[in-house]
Amino acid sequence: MASESFRRRYSRFFGANPQQDVDDELAFHIAMRTDEFKRAGMRAEEARQAALARFGPELRVRQELEELSRRRVARQQRSTRWEALAQDVRYAVRTLRANPAYALIIALTMALGIGATTAVFSVAYGVLLRPLPYDDAEALVRLWSRNDARGLEFFSVSPADFRDWRAQARAFSVMGAFERQRDATLTRGDEPQSVVLASVTPEIFQVLGTSALHGRALVPADASEGAPAVAVLEHALWAARFGSDPSIIGSNLTVDGVTHTVVGVMPPRFWVPGTPAELWVPLSLAGASEDHSSRTLRVLARLAPGATVERARMEMDVIAQRLAREHPATNASWLVNMMPVTEMIIGTDFQRAVLVLLGVVGFVLLIACANSANLQLARGAARRREIAVRAALGASRGRISTQLLTESVLLAVVGGVAGLALAYAGVALLRDIGTEMVPRLEDVRLDVPVVAFTALVSLGSGVLFGLLPAIRVSRANIGEVLKAAGRGEGRGTVGQGVRSTLVIAEVSLSLVLLVGAGLLMRSFARLQSVDVGFDPSAVVVVPLQLPERSYPDSQRTAIFYSSLVAQLRQLPGVTHAAGVTQAPFAGGNSGNVFFPEGRAIAREDAPDADYRMITPGYLRTMGIRLIRGRDFSAGDDHRAPGAMLISETMARRFWPNEDPIGQRVRVGNATAPPETIVGIVADVRYQSLETPEVRPMMYLSALARRPQEMTLVVRGSEGADQTAAIQRTVAAMDATLPPPAVQRMENLIAEAMSTPRFALMLFAIFAGAALLLAAVGIYGVMSYLVRQRTHELGIRVALGAQPRALVVSVVFRALRMALAGVAIGLAGAWMLTRSMSSLLFGVSPTDPATFAAISVLLVSIAAIASLVPATRAARADPVRALRGED
How high is the pLDDT of residue 244? Predict the structure, then answer.
């Protein structure tokens, strides 16, 4: 090579560092030759270039050789590091195989912590972070009407308002609307089937940016006047009812007596936010009312390119103010509410709950790491002689620490693999019990991001619980350890203070979790004790939707429901039966404004209340108390309309100083026919158990109003199953109706409490795991400390100490650690439980009774956990203890 010949040529100039000398000599000769060329008359730059032309190749070759040398050294170093790592792993495997119980305990402890963390993270990732199944989902927003004066934050939109919004808004590229989903009867050659149907404007599919899997989605022409009836199928319905047959496109099916042509099947996991449905049909607004007060629509929109939610919100406020000026009678107090679809689906409270749950499992993981670190410290103390010998033979502290860390990480990785299996089972369990409570639970799965998170947590946990023991053990004084070993004293006191500190941390973290679980338990107990206002035992609800094609007028509808109720009352075991438009806790709600007669109230200032239409006998069937006045009777029909019942809250709020019975009220508008209040009934909770106040309620006679859709309520004998008899009775009345779903009222109430029950269950599981880990940690530390004091305790017994005194001293030491942990945990719980306010009902997040009870529980657990090793130490043979025998 050129550089070698150069080195030989100028070898007389080289010193102790030939490589540096080559570089220096090259630089020297380049400078000398440059000066010669300059003296010969060349300009400075020309002289330098001429010198480089002579010596430059030598310099470049030398630089290339040095680069190759650096790469070779780097490869050798990497190879050495990999060989050292492989050696550490092999040694760690041999060491752990020699101590299988120790390895199993740590692996299971870390599996519990990592598995819980992975399961909750998979929920957080699938629900909060995974994108919705729509094109550019961040651009989707939901719009509502809002009336602050009436406390209506999310209210439906009138078709007239929707048309004006769509025509005037520029912040949206497209806007669509839909009506609330309803039950419909689907028939295609065999027995009828009840399906959930939603009427949507064709633009909804354009808003969501989703194409059909087969066929096409709805288009504007489908909603034009005179267009043939068409329908789009949900994927699950297509698979279950039609066997995933693509030839369904173009075929006909009957929906509520009307023949529809199937034009498309949507892809899996597609749904219209706000209206889950199995079947979509076009909604035409061509002939919709111009009345801005008739609010029946839900609205979705897609932001235009470059538009933001804030800009769209300001524009909609301007449009709402313009409509209020143009239509003061109907729009004076109405504004627009807007929310990104992602936030609407997930909900702020649920996001907070998931974040709280992530904090909870983080505490469990920290407790697991603390337990594992305690075990590592205990085992490190037992291995001090081995490590001292290795250090005496030349192993550096860094090398020893690396070896110990390798064992910790290996155990954490094994725990992570087991934790992944636990998380898989946990997610499957969540899907089974939490589908109705957790939004987007079908998107939760253990995919690549979750597995990567598990791997990261496993490695981090291994370093976290292994670093401190590795440092403590590797820093032990070699001479003292070997001298102690020579005297037969193999157990030192390395890490006793650290182990006690870790136990204190475990207790404090456990207390925070247990306080959270205790608050949820008290909240759930309060929720269960809420008076719903009726007797749900032995009551079943039977929702029915009569197709308009078969029952085109209210007379036929009234005859059907009256006949059906009469037949249900004749069934064996049935004591009462009645009808209501919406049963308690069965979903849906109806409300309207009302105008008390004799009071001058503008429409925008009119009060509002919920209302239900009921048949005579509803109060008896449900066990609702009639406070004053009379119930509805068969005479309150269309021939003698005008009777109304009101709830106790409505009477107290709107007629505080007078008797409401006999008062006349107009419902809906000031010109509606008057209704006369004939009775006052007890308050009933129809929607939620968690609201602090019950909404005012109006009851109207179903015999007079004749609704198309009703829910039958049937009270039977306790424990009797009336489902089959009810379904046979409905089929005998009309064989074209699908078999109705029969639900127990007690189950509906239980479902209303499912979310707090779900939160309580998860919190209790994780808090129980934390308590178990803390108890194991205290037991392990006290057992270790007792073994360390075996010689001392033997001397004390030989000198006449009472076993009871030894037990008390050991237990007292455990109680000191527990009390220190409780004190720290109380401060942490006082600050952290405030984030749980949205999950609690009727309980303060700093409830003193809960804090005190949990503190006593933890101290008691600490005493019990320390009692076993204390008793064993007190019963030990003093002779064996003095000899140093276990």
Answer: 92
At 257, the amino acid letter reads: G
Rounded CA-CA distance 245/253 in Å is 14
- Measure Cα distances from 492 to 280, 496, 749, 809 in Å: 75, 9, 61, 20
Q: Are 187 and 736 in contact (CB under 8 A)?
A: yes
> Which pLDDT score is estimated for 139?
93
Two tokens, residue 139: 């651009």
Q: What share of the chain is helix, strand, coil (3-state, %, to 5)?
A: 55, 15, 30
Q: What is the DSSP letter of 846?
A: T
Q: What is the pLDDT of residue 770?
A: 80
- Quickly count: other Cβ atoms within 10 Å of residue 612's Cβ: 22
3-class SS at 400? helix
Number of Cβ within 10 Å of residue 203's Cβ equals: 22
Residue pair 263/230 in contact by the 8 Å Cβ criterion: yes
Altogether, the residues listed in the chain come to a count of: 886
Secondary structure (3-state) at 666: strand
pTM for the model stands at 0.70
Indicate if the pLDDT at residue 81 is higher than 90.
no
Which residue intervals of 435-492 are DSSP H helices? 448-474, 478-486
Closest listed residue to residue 680, CA positions, set 730, 726, 617, 626:
626
pLDDT band for position 11 (cuts 50, 70, 90) = very low
Q: Is the pLDDT of residue 885 over 60?
A: no
Q: How far apart are CA 17 and CA 790, in angstroms?
A: 63
Of 688, 127, 743, 689, nearest to 430 by C-alpha is 127
> Which residue type, as a one-letter code, is found at position 561?
Y
Give whole-number Cα distances, 204 to 214, 237, 355, in Å: 18, 20, 32
Close Cβ partners of 61 (under 8 Å, ≥ 6 residues apart):
1, 2, 3
In the chain, % of residues over pLDDT 70: 82
Q: Which residues pair with 743 in a beta bridge?
A: 541
Which two three-digit tokens encode residue 130?
A: 């995974």
Q: In the structure, what pLDDT confidence band is assigned to residue 483 with cuts at 50, 70 and 90? A: low
| Rounded-to-integer distance, Cα 555 and Cα 885, Å | 96
For every residue of 260-314, DSSP letters joined together read: EEEEEEPPTT---TT---SEEEE---TT----TT---EEEEEEEPTT--HHHHHH
**CA distance linking residue 150 with residue 187, whole number of Å:** 43
Q: How far apart are CA 185 and CA 693, in angstroms?
A: 37
Mean pLDDT of 632-639: 87
Burial letters for 136-170: b for 16+ Cβ neighbours within 10 Å, e otherwise? Answer: ebebbbbbbbbbeebebeeebbbbbbbebbbeebe
The two tokens of residue 645 are: 């019942």
Mapping DSSP onto H, E and C, the string for 125-147 reads HHHHHCCCCCCCHHHEEEEEEEE
Q: Exposed, middle or buried by CB within 10 Å (0-12, 13-18, 19+), for 544?
A: buried
By DSSP bridging, strand 230-233 and strand 279-282 are antiparallel
**417 pLDDT exceeds 80?**
yes
Helix (H) / strand (E) containing 263:
strand 258-265
* Secondary structure of residue 822 in the 3-state scheme: helix
| pLDDT score of 702 more than 60 | yes
Mean pLDDT for 42-55 is: 71
Sorting pLDDT into bands at 50, 70 and 90, what band is 261? very high
Q: Decide if 197 contacts 281 (C-beta within 8 A).
A: yes
Average pLDDT over residues 213-235: 92
Report phi then psi at 514, rounded to 5.
-70, -35
Tokens 């509808």 map to which residue? 557
> How would residue 18 be classed by pLDDT, with cut points 50, 70 and 90?
very low
Q: Residue 649: left (phi > 0), alpha (psi -120 to 50), or beta?
A: alpha
Alpha carbon distance 119, 358 (integer Å): 10
- Looking up tokens 């997930």 gives 346
Q: What is the DSSP letter of 393?
A: T
**Average pLDDT over all residues of the chain:** 81
Say how far apart CA 446 and CA 130 lie, in whole Å.
12
